[in-house]
Specification:
Elements lengths: L1 H27 L9 H5 L6 H23 L2
Length: 73
């Protein structure tokens, strides 16, 4: 059970780091328009929050199903 807490804490730490990084990028931006990043040009759907929510949500459901299937007595 502790590994789930550690995994969740790691996820929160990564999200916090990424949020701070994006906030600093926005503060240093001088233009009104967003800058085009190389990663966004190559994979525009990857940074779409709707797709990320579906991927994370369904991934979590699949992991939960696998967990219950493996631990069912």
């Amino acid at each position: 059970m502790w590994y789930l807490l550690a995994l969740g804490g790691l996820f929160v730490a990564i999200a916090l780091f990424y949020t701070i990084k994006v906030g600093k990028d926005v503060e240093t931006q001088n233009d009104e328009f967003d800058t085009e990043f190389k990663a966004t040009k190559e994979h525009p759907a990857l940074f779409n929050p709707v797709f990320l929510a579906y991927i994370i949500g369904f991934g979590g459901i699949i992991l939960l199903i696998l967990y219950f299937a493996l631990t069912w007595k």
